[in-house]
Design goal:
It comes from Neomonachus schauinslandi. Keywords: Glycosyltransferase, Membrane, Signal, Transferase, Transmembrane, Transmembrane helix. One of its GO terms (biological process) is GPI anchor biosynthetic process. The chain is mainly alpha-helical. 75% of the residues lie in helices and 0% in strands. It contains 2 helices and no strands. Helix 1 runs antiparallel to helix 2. The protein is elongated, with a radius of gyration of 17 Å.
Length: 71
């Protein structure tokens, strides 16, 4: 019952964007109040940055393993 990769590729950015819009509507000082790690706003800004970085390094590692195996 796992979701496929194309579904997750679309679903994860949409969920993080929804969290970002939720934080923007709930927090009264949205851009300035996001420095506290206990607020939801901090993590709604951190998630859209973390996911592409994770995907990049995951693919970089996979590519390194593929190149190492074929040489």
């Amino acid at each position: 019952m796992f979701l496929s990769l194309p579904t997750l590729t679309v679903l994860i950015p949409l969920v993080s964007l929804a969290g970002l819009f939720y934080s923007a509507s709930v927090e009264e000082n949205f851009p300035q109040g996001c420095t506290n790690t206990t607020s939801l706003c901090f993590y709604s800004l951190l998630l859209p940055i973390t996911i592409p970085v994770y995907v990049f390094f995951h693919l970089w590692t996979w590519m390194g393993i593929k190149l190492f195996r074929h040489n």
